[in-house]
Write a structure and sequence with these properties.
Layout (H helix, E strand, L loop, with lengths): L1 E11 L8 E15 L8 E5 L12 H13 L9 E7 L9 H16 L6 H12 L5 H6 L2 E4 L16 E4 L5 E7 L5 H6 L7 H20 L5 H4 L6 H4 L6 H10 L4 E4 L6 E5 L4 H14 L4 E6 L7 E4 L1
Parallel strand pairs: 3-4
Antiparallel strand pairs: 1-2, 1-11, 2-4, 2-5, 5-6, 7-9, 7-10, 8-9
Helix pairs in contact: 1-2, 2-3, 9-10
The protein binds L-homoserine.
């Protein structure tokens, strides 16, 4: 039996919506699992971005998340002895486009399909959020589209997040330009540097921007995005590790983008813009990175509407 799953890249936060907003994009990783007889398993076939860097053993995140899923499902018959794993990565690993979320969602979906699809998308999301630690990449990777992830009160009954608390916003008809610098920034590090407490003025500032951002999508008034994507609770801190961040965002806005922000925990930077302005915005962003002698990969993408899709072969 061979099962594959295609999982979209994601862009999270969208500026002020830290751990809340996330969108799926039409750039995909593919994960496959094939059952084999006679203890001939344990072969990892890696292609694309991760072909040289991803581990080909127990430590591989895809295998780790598959193992966790088998545990949750009470399934003991699968191990690396009877499974071969294929990973084809188009999503850059350096950070900001949800590459680890795609691995987690791909792995849970594969293990679930091998076990007869016992988990629905909501349950897949619950487990993926538990493994990833925050919802705004895994949720759009599973459901597609532009999502609002609503966190429960910690003291509330489990689960902390559930499908009932994920809202979908109308999907805009514009492009998302992504510039991904070659230096890596791990999400763990990029979260550790954030202060534990938020200043009240900054909280009010961000609440107002989240309201403007939501209104921009609901009314289809994208002239509101520049203001709606401003943030004071994570970007200023992360910007210290991404020296060109403010200048790249400014360059995107000057070139005609509706809004621009640090994608997820960075170092990727995203800009939302009209189709006809996308290339100009991309060039303006690249120019700033070049000045800083940083090489970048760039993409002009659309929103993905479907989320993770399982393909049985
Ligand atoms: N909301 C998460 C963060 C997204 O900003 O840390 C990580 O991609």
């Amino acid at each position: 039996m061979k099962i594959c799953v295609k999982v979209p890249a994601t862009t999270a936060n969208l500026g002020p919506g830290f751990d809340v907003f996330g969108a799926a994009l039409n750039l995909y990783n593919e994960f496959c699992a094939e059952t084999v007889d006679g203890a001939k398993g344990g072969i990892f076939t890696l292609k694309g971005e991760g072909r040289k860097s991803l581990p080909k053993n127990e430590k591989n995140l895809v295998w780790q998340a598959m193992k966790e899923t088998f545990k949750v499902l009470g399934e003991t018959k699968y191990s690396l002895k009877n499974l071969n794993i294929g990973i084809n990565t188009a999503i850059p690993l350096s950070g900001g486009l949800g590459s680890s979320a795609s691995a987690i969602v791909g792995a849970i979906s594969l293990a679930n399909a091998l076990c007869g699809d016992k988990l629905n998308k909501s349950k897949i999301a619950e487990l993926a959020i538990k493994i990833e630690g925050h919802p705004d990449n895994v949720v759009p990777a599973i459901f597609g589209g532009l999502c609002i992830c609503v966190k429960n009160d910690e003291k509330n009954s489990l689960p902390k997040y559930s499908h009932g608390e994920i809202l979908h916003l109308p999907i805009p008809k514009f492009k998302i330009v992504l510039c991904v610098p070659s230096f890596e920034l791990r999400t763990k590090r990029s979260r550790q540097i954030l202060p534990k407490n938020v200043d009240l003025d900054d909280a009010v500032f961000n609440s107002s921007r989240v309201a403007v951002l939501t209104a921009a999508f609901c009314f289809g008034d994208y002239s509101l995005l520049e203001k709606g994507m401003q943030d004071k609770i994570h970007q200023p801190y992360r910007g210290k590790m991404i020296p060109a961040m403010d200048e790249v965002i400014r360059a995107a806005l000057n070139a005609g983008a509706y809004g621009s922000y640090l994608s997820g925990s960075g170092p990727a930077i995203a800009a939302f813009c009209e189709n006809k302005k996308a290339d100009e915005v991309r060039k303006a962003m690249i120019k700033v990175w070049k000045k800083e002698s940083v090489s970048v990969k760039s993409f002009i993408l659309d929103f993905d509407k479907k989320g993770a899709a399982v393909i049985r072969q």
